[in-house]
Amino acid sequence: MPGKVFVNRTLNLKKIRYIGVDMDHTLVRYNSENFERLSHTTMIDKLVKRGYPETLRKLVFDYNFAIRGLVIDRKMGNLLKLNRYTAIRASYHGLKPLDFKSHQKLYKSTYIDLSNSDYLAVDTSFSISLANLIAQIVELKDSDTANKYPEYAQIADDVLDALDEAHRDGSLKDVVKQNLDHFIIKDPTLVHTLEKFRRHGKKIFVLTNSDFHYTKLLLDYAIQPFLKEHKSWEDLFEFVITFASKPKFFYENQKYLRVNPADGTMTNMEGKLTPGIYQGGNAKKFTADLDLAGDDILYVGDHIYGDILRLKKDCNWRTAMVIEELDVEVENNKQAEPINQEIETLMKKKEPLEDELTDIMTRKIEKSVAANEPQIETLQKTISEIDSQISQLIKKQQAMYNSNWGQLMRAGNEESYFAYQLDRYACVYMQKLSDLLDLSPRTYFRAPRRPLAHEIF
Q: Residues 412-425: pLDDT tens digits?
């Protein structure tokens, strides 16, 4: 059964001429828990070599501790969940939630400025292990009497640098290469749907930050065996652009190098782009050489900043985002619906009582009307009892999602900051690429009409 594609902005696939796809976590799916556990172990190894205590090797990775969309407060050593306005709606210090008093003392009613270098976004699947390890080391630092750990900001920087180095020096990919079955998910259906889109005249290109040799390895493993209408993935994809340095690809004028697929050697690229394999490059030349407008291209990625946000701001290509956690979120929403209905019923019961109490107190103050104190006391008691019931139901509802952070797309009753970014920059989104490609290449996605606050009665 085809998966669901969710629509933020109207999109007519019939008018799309080129479909671009990121490779890691989009075209090629990973077993994210296995990969993040590897990242966690690799970062620890690098930190210990840099002088961190051997105690780190005893840390156990918890894939469910953090979720995408959190923000790391480097200075305070905290993890934060923000709403769409960047107000904090949940906070952890180390592995423990901050109590109300501690939170108020640190943040009061602060709105987080994400352009401030004190804050680091957890915005990709690759960031789950990062957030987990920073929180674990903060926990160790707080219980350390021998002063073996640096300040919180330095811990965050060191862990991030260890992760960046692991991606840069091949530490992670070397392990993946040796055990592809453990880390990579094969999806024959995806390959067949890619070929279907080619039959409809759609040009498909790969745009990845991975190097050519790793890209070739994964495409040979996950794409090549399932091709029926093409001799190789080189025939399937019009262009394969490696080491693209996204998001710089979308706003800088990096030069293209042509890659020889036989041995990976590179030569300077002269003249206009023609189908083939490249390294580097930039979006401006890509669209100009192929005589494309922004609306002619749909790009699908999994990184809200690197794939979607800067692309939308700088190139105005159409955008689609893959969110692998989405199927769990949607299923949990269905399971939570009866509880949501109970909460809604209680809210409808509470609101007229609050209105009545407001009216009594207003008349008492403005018109010096003698108040019925027993009535006020009864109303306050009833409202408090309903609030207690609602609070218990909210806890029960949140427990159906991530036990620490609740829903991915909501922060309490509001949109999470991650959901806000998704809504603003992704035209459509889905759990996996094949959900989109299962559909007809002539599909017309219509955005639902969203009522404004004053239109809701």
A: 889 999 999 999 99
